[in-house]
């Protein structure tokens, strides 16, 4: 990997990290129009945002990709709920 490619990767990682930090600050402190989120809600939002970032895997966001992510996330939640319910029997 060339030095330029290496610097680009680091910059992209820092940008994503800064975006997540900014999103966390928004959730933590709120705005004039929105109250701050509680810790459990904030962690859930950040977890979902991280999953979405991984799902995109560098691809440009499109409505179709967003819909695909929602379908996959919904399927994972349903499978998880089914596993819990089956475990209770």
TrEMBL record:
Protein name (Swiss-Prot/TrEMBL): Core-binding (CB) domain-containing protein
| Species name | marine sediment metagenome
Lineage runs:
unclassified sequences, metagenomes, ecological metagenomes
């Amino acid at each position: 990997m060339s030095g330029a490619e290496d610097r680009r990767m680091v910059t992209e990682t820092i940008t994503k990290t800064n975006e997540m930090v900014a999103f966390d600050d928004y959730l933590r402190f709120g705005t004039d129009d929105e109250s701050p989120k509680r810790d459990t809600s904030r962690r859930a939002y950040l977890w979902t945002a991280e999953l979405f970032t991984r799902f995109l895997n560098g691809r440009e966001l499109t409505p179709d990709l967003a819909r695909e992510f929602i379908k996959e996330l919904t399927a994972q939640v349903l499978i998880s709920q089914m596993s819990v319910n089956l475990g209770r029997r």
